Amino acid sequence: MPHPIAVLGGTGPEGFGLALRWARAGESVIIGSRDAGRAREAAARIQAAIGSNARVSGDESSAACAAADLLVLTIPFEGHAALLKQIKPAIRPGSIVVDATVPLAASVGGRATRTLGIWQGSAAQQTAELVPQGVSVVAAFHNTSAEVLNSDAGVDCDVIVCGDDAEATKTVRALATKIPGVRAIDGGKLENARILEQITALLIGLNIRHKGHSGIRITGLPEKAYEAL
After folding, report:
1. What is the pLDDT at residue 76?
2. Are 149 and 21 in contact (CB under 8 A)?
3. CA–CA dist 104, 62 (Å, integer)
4. 3-state DSSP call for residue 96?
5. What is the domain partition of the chain in residue ranges?
6. Segment 3-17, tens digit of pLDDT
7. Are 229 and 173 in contact (CB under 8 A)?
8. Terminal CA-to-CA distance of the chain, rounded, Å?
9. What's the whole-number mean pLDDT along residues 46-58?
10. What's the average model confidence in pLDDT over 101-126?
11. Residues 160/226, Cβ–Cβ less than 8 Å
12. Taking Cα atoms as reference points, which of 35, 9, 11, 31 lies closest to residue 22?
């Protein structure tokens, strides 16, 4: 049986789309939400879309964390620190936390086309300060379109994965390539997450201007740079 993936914020568009894609790929997925009922409803929607063989369930966020050792944060930035403080006691030792959070200025009444300044440098680095010692934090999935993830189309986007733990980075790259169309590229240290977050704001601006669902592709690297290990 696959190790479960807890997608926190899995009732929102990005989290639901990732959960849907991984469930389609045969992964075991737990949708986490503040409201366990909403999480179970989202899981039922995925079950209905994929079929009875889908390994998907829903639960309150702390309970979802306690049942998994691979956690994916897909939450609005305004709830970021509060959620991490809530779930901290439930995070298993040795877990990997994948942070896709983007600190958009829209969360404080500004524009969605720019990011907020974070004292730690990025939302992912803030996560690294708030999780228990021994938990690896990886930044990824910032630039994948929620609209495309929730469709049947291949995802025309590279996922850049940043982290300070090489093994955790490899794990997340392999997970990213479960999504058809995605190539996963090692983007270096976790401090580079601030660039990924800023690219998201740029893509939002492009989507608004051109009415599209843009992603990014990285060209010119050796072939093995695009291969999941």
Report:
1. 87
2. yes
3. 25
4. strand
5. 5-226
6. 899 999 999 999 999
7. yes
8. 20
9. 93
10. 70
11. no
12. 31
Dist. CA 23–CA 43, nearest whole Å: 10
Q: Is residue 12 within 8 Å of 38, Cβ to Cβ?
A: no
Cβ count within 10 A of residue 54: 19
So what's the pLDDT on residue 110?
Answer: 52
Record the tokens describing residue 191, joined without a space.
């401090």
Which strand (E) or helix (H) includes residue 8? Answer: strand 5-8
pLDDT tens digits for 17-36?
999 999 999 999 999 999 99
Please tell me what DSSP assigns to residue 114.
S
Q: How far apart are CA 161 and CA 82, in angstroms?
A: 24
- Amino acid identity of residue 200, one-letter, is T
Tell which CATH classification among 3.20.20.70, 2.60.130.10, 3.40.50.720, 2.60.320.10 matches the domain 5-226.
Answer: 3.40.50.720
- Integer-rounded Cα Rg, in Å, for the chain is 16
Cβ(75)–Cβ(34) under 8 Å?
Answer: no
Which residues neighbour 221 within 8 Å (Cβ) at sequence distance 6 or greater? Answer: 185
How far is Cα of residue 39 from the mean position of the Cα atoms in its chain?
A: 16
- Per residue in 117-174, pLDDT tens? 666 778 999 999 999 999 999 999 999 999 999 999 889 999 999 999 999 999 999 9
Element (H, E) at 31: strand 29-33
Which pLDDT score, from 0 to 100, does residue 1 have? 42
